[in-house]
Amino acid sequence: MENSSDILKQVRKIEIKTRGLSNDIFAGHYHSAFKGRGMAFSEVREYRPGDDVRDIDWNVTARSRKPHIKIYEEERELTMMLLVDVSGSRMFGTTDKLKKNIATEIAATLAFSAAQNNDKVGCLFFSDRIEKFIPPKKGRSHILMIIRELIEFTPQDTTTNMAEPLRFLTNALKKRCTTFMLSDFIDNDVKTFEDALKIASSKHDIAGIRIYDPRETELPDIGIVELKDAETGRKVWTDTSSPTIRETYRRNWEESSRQVDTVMKRCRVDSVAVATDEDYVKSLIKLFKQR
To answer: How many CB atoms lie within 10 A of CB 134?
Structure first.
């Protein structure tokens, strides 16, 4: 168990790195990709020829007996929500960083980028349940608190239900927000996930960031080894020297990736994949440029 001093050092280290990235690289990309996408009600005025009839305010029209329309303006402040997967598989990693470490740095970079635009930032930790909800707020101290939670939070469950955070987002946040979902997207119930994503993405501006380790894509030829499922605890002995087993493992990964990509495309959600041995800066810029 890490003490408070060690955690504060980690928080500070992450702040220095990610705040620098957000200031130097991501603030402009974030602003152009997400700013101005939200619209807020401003006022009502009488209908004029050429106005969009879809903007007619029927309540005011009925009271005044003259057609009126709603006027909207771009919201000057938006809200960013970070949906972070804290299930058991986040602790996997065969490079110098776990998936958890990459998720923490990406979340911090996005949070500081939002702060540059004076946006509120909130965070939701999930496994197969809602583990913790941090309501959206502004300020450096709030972001540092989120980073600290990302580092030291211990979930109650280890399995994953991707639909749960999306349902919570749909029901709890009434105002449209920019949402980043950080996960390895390992969930056997793809259909339920897609249904929840379809509803949530019709209300909020959602982007998916899939974080994976290179060893999840293929097995090395190292003989007989014991593999353990980080979420269920199930163990199995596997002969990695078998070409058939290695090929089956690779194909399962590719099929899982295709399923996730298909769901994202059908729900019109932009997404990007980030490996633990890759530079996530390029991946995030790629995600922003998709928009």
So the answer is: 16
Contact 177, 136 (CB under 8 A): yes
Closest CA to 185 of 280, 268, 255: 255
Per-residue pLDDT of 70-114, as tens digits, reads: 876 555 568 999 999 999 999 988 888 999 999 999 999 999 988
For residue range 185-194, what is the model confidence (pLDDT) as tens digits? 988 899 999 9
CB atoms within 10 A of CB 156: 10
Identify whether the C-beta of residue 126 lies closer than 8 Å to the C-beta of residue 153: no
Cα–chain center distance at 182: 4
Residue 147, classed as helix, strand or coil, is helix
Are the C-beta atoms of residues 165 and 183 closer than 8 Å to each other? no
N- to C-terminal Cα distance for the chain?
41
DSSP 287: H
Dihedral of the alpha carbons of 186, 190, 196, 200, in degrees to the nearest 10? 60
Name the residue type at position 266. Answer: R
Collapsed DSSP state (helix, strand, coil) of residue 82: strand
Helix (H) or strand (E) holding 106, with range, is: helix 99-116
Q: Which residue has the tokens 């003259």?
A: 66
The set of residues, in sequence order, having a beta carbon less than 8 Å from that of 187 and lying 6+ positions away, is: 160, 161, 162, 193
The percentage of the chain sitting over the pLDDT mark of 70, rounded to a whole number, equals 91
Written as six digits, the tokens of 252 are 């399962």
CA dist 196 and 250 (Å) reads: 28
Would you give the distance in Å from CA 183 to the centre of its chain?
7
Q: What is the pTM of this model?
A: 0.82
Given a contact cutoff of 8 angstroms between Cβ atoms, the answer to whether 2 and 143 are in contact is no
Residues of the chain with pLDDT > 90: what percent? 60
- 57 token code pair: 């305010």
CA gap 257, 279 in Å, rounded: 20
